Amino acid sequence: LYKILTWAYHHKDDDDQAAEGEELTPQSPHDISPWDANFINVDQPILFEITVAANYLEIKGLEDLCCKTLANMIRGKTPEEIRQT
Q1: What residue stretches are annotated with the SKP1 component dimerisation domain (predicted)?
Q2: pLDDT averaged per 10 residues, the chain (length 85)
Q3: How far is CA 21 from CA 31, 36, 64, 67, 68, in A?
Q4: pLDDT for position 31
């Protein structure tokens, strides 16, 4: 919970396009700020826990960050390499 609160506090002043119902602009999976990259650089089980919590708490920005990170982890890997990750 501490990690989620840390992320929320850091992003409290961000524009929230999704909350306003505006259409989001497509972003590259590599569009992760240095602060977010450092924040999400955790062990895989912790990343999964944060992802599930962000989904349950409906924190779209954090959920997107987790999904981008997971996608980057498996990008370019074979199914066997993904199983071993």
Answers
A1: 60-85
A2: 94 70 52 93 96 96 95 93 87
A3: 21, 24, 16, 21, 21
A4: 80
Task: Specify the residue for token string 């992003």.
Answer: 11
Tell me which DSSP letter residue 85 carries: -
What pLDDT is stored for residue 14 in this prediction?
86
| Whole-number pLDDT of residue 57 | 96
Right CATH for 2-6+29-84 from 3.30.70.1450, 3.30.710.10, 3.40.50.150, 3.40.50.11740: 3.30.710.10
- SS3 at position 24: coil
Long-range contacts of 6-12 (CB under 8 A, 24+ apart): 6/39, 7/36, 7/39, 7/59, 7/62, 7/65, 8/59, 8/62, 10/35, 10/39, 11/61, 11/62
